Amino acid sequence: MGRQASAVLRGHPVTARSVAAIVAGLLLFGSFPPRPWWFLAPLGVAILTLAVRGDGRLRAGFGYGFLAGLAFFVPLLPWTGIYVGPLPWLALSLACALYLGVFGLLGRLVGALPGWPLWVASAWTAAEWGRSSFPFGGFPWGRLAFGQADGWFLSLAAVGGAPLVGFAVALTGTATAALVTLLQSSLTPEDRRETGGDETGPLGPGAVRGSATRLGYAAVIFTLLVMPLTGLLLRSALPDPDVGVRTVTVAAIQGSVPRLGLDFNAQRRAVLDNHVRRTAELADDVAAGRAPRPDVVIWPENSSDIDPLRNADAAALITAASERIGAPILVGAVLINQDRTTTNSVMVWNGAAGPGERHDKKIIQPFGEYLPMRNFFRLFSEYADRAGYFVPGNGDGVVHAAGIDIGVATCYEVAFDRSFEDALRAGAQLLTVPTNNATFGDSEMTYQQLAMSRIRAVEHGRALVVAATSGVSAIISADGAIRQETALFVPAALVAELPLRDDTTLATRIGPAPERIFVILTAAAALTAVARRRAARSARPTPGLVGER
Questions:
Q1: What's the pLDDT tens digit per position in 23-53?
Q2: Preceding amide of 366 cis, omega within 30
Q3: Closest residue by Cα to residue 166 from 153, 179, 181
Q4: What are the backbone angles phi and psi of residue 542, rounded to the nearest 5°?
Q5: Alpha-carbon Rg for the chain in angstroms
Q6: Please, which residues have CB within 8 angstroms of residue 192's CB and are 6 or more apart in sequence?
Q7: Phi, psi at 342, each rounded to 5°
Q8: Helices (H), 205-251
């Protein structure tokens, strides 16, 4: 049976590599929340690395990477098409898969260099940087780091942010692939033929030639172990989740919505009423001694889609809620500008004093909050004109309420490494992610986003509060642990005493430097590999001139 399988693999190397790539993509998908199987990610990278490496054409590497990308992103992103049909979902998945195709091409190119596990892992990080940046500001969803909130690699976020976590996962995977190739190269020629490990075999990395050395084994095993073990050891260096310069009491309100879908806010007054009502219930609990009085209350994104700066009734409701709870409220509101564009804002509402500082969402969502090339895309979807006319804000992302410096990243912003950078430089002591997930129904989106918030908490060493309209809302400590969370689609209030911190992590101090280093390393490795390929090609004898003088 084994020999028959080996014969099939040897006879159909393209098919075997294609199947391996698809399996790799599915394993990557399986590593993401709500599943806790973070350990599948290195395995997926290992299988994909084995599939893309080889002596053949670079476009073959692109093709295998692209197949893996489709197998990864198509099941990861169906929430993007729940209420608008499959075309946007499949188009976005296709666009993201192209970047895994780029990784496949780079993996084949730099995979022949000495020390190739390092360069291939670096290529993965570079491809993620590209996807997180282009086009339309990028789409970071599905970065390896965002599947590691429950894993051994999490603490690395405090050192180098999400890029270092992703690189560590990728390097563990490429080292695993290197170990497989070393074991394969140590077989006898007959063994290699029986196991499909010849030059064209599906696992043949361009055919590793010669016997594996003890030094090679030691280097690969060391590389395979160093990243996950470093992550485990660094856990002891994460901040004590209960220690800070002082503590404050924070409440997150989840008012829920009358219905899910794109038209959830058709009953905008009902959404606002829900959050006012749940805040009043918390005030009753405080008065009865069942809950501590919060210093600040955080409402979700879109908790008031009625502009309270223009609508006196909405303003009166928010003022009454703030006065009743006896604390300022961070209100997620849609504000209408003079030119009829809109701004997605989180503003501090100080009781009778009314609105104070605000954070206008700086990273707005293409094809949702605004539509690039609207006239073009409306040719393909009737939902094009339902995209908003939001404009990005500016500022440092910090609002001040009750003497607390609060860094804000609204919903989609938390996926981007730069989301909290300005806020931390401006002295944010506490972080919050107000979000509205009602537009994505009962999908995995909210759990994927929650994992991003956990990464950001560790990255910057800050407690973080997630306030969601329909869930999941959560209180996250500086070590990435979820201290409290709500169920989906039920009104709820979370109250917690949280520490404020002024110190910063290494990741906060160095910012985007790790990712830039990985991109530079990848570019240098790619240029070196191209030069080697050209030199090898020019050294080959020209047909028809062999033996001639």
A1: 999 999 999 999 999 999 999 999 999 999 9
A2: no
A3: 153
A4: -75, 130
A5: 26
A6: 184, 198, 201
A7: -125, 160
A8: 214-234
The tally of CA atoms less than 13 A away on the side-chain side of residue 297 is 33
Q: Please, is 542 exposed, middle or buried when counting C-beta atoms within 10 Å of its C-beta (0-12, 13-18, 19+)?
A: exposed
Between the alpha carbon of residue 435 and those of residues 139, 409, 457, the distances in Å are 17, 9, 16
Which one from 128, 301, 421, 459 is the annotated catalytic residue? Answer: 301
Query: 472 vs 281, 432, 436, 488, CA distance in Å?
Result: 19, 14, 10, 6
Length of the chain, please? 549
CA torsion sign, 510 to 238 to 127 to 221? positive
Three-state secondary structure call for residue 176: helix
User: Catalytic residue at 96?
Assistant: no
Q: What angle do CA 29, 30, 33 make, to 5 degrees?
A: 90
73: its two tokens: 């992103």
Active-site position among 361, 413, 421, 459? 361
> Over 70: is that where the pLDDT of 523 sits?
yes
At residue 198 the predicted structure's pLDDT band, cuts being 50, 70 and 90, is very low
Alpha-carbon torsion angle 346, 371, 162, 420, nearest 10? -20
DSSP string over 8-65: HHHH-HHHHHHHHHHHHHHHHHHTSTTS--TTHHHHHHHHHHHHH-SSS-HHHHHHHH
The phi and psi torsions of 272 (rounded to 5 degrees) equal -60, -45
| Burial state string for 216-235 with b = 16 or more CB within 10 A and e = fewer than 16 | beebbeebbeebbeebeebe
The SS3 of residue 417 is helix
Question: Residue 466 contacts by C-beta under 8 Å, 6 or more apart in sequence?
Answer: 252, 432, 433, 434, 435, 450, 453, 472, 473, 474, 475, 476
Backbone angles phi and psi of 17, in degrees to 5? -65, -35
At residue 386 the predicted structure's pLDDT band, cuts being 50, 70 and 90, is confident
Annotated catalytic residue: which of 96, 362, 411, 413? 411
Q: What is the β-pairing status of strands 296-298 and 246-254?
A: parallel
Active site residue 301: yes
Residue range 398-440, pLDDT digits in tens: 999 999 999 999 999 999 999 999 999 999 999 999 999 888 8
Annotated active-site residue 361? The verdict is yes
Which H or E element spans position 401? strand 398-401
499 upstream amide cis, omega within 30 of 0 = no
Q: Is 347 helix (H, G, I), strand (E, B) or coil?
A: strand
Q: How far apart are CA 461 and CA 446, in angstroms?
A: 22
Q: What are phi and psi of 315, to 5 degrees?
A: -60, -40
Q: Which two tokens stand for residue 495?
A: 């109250």
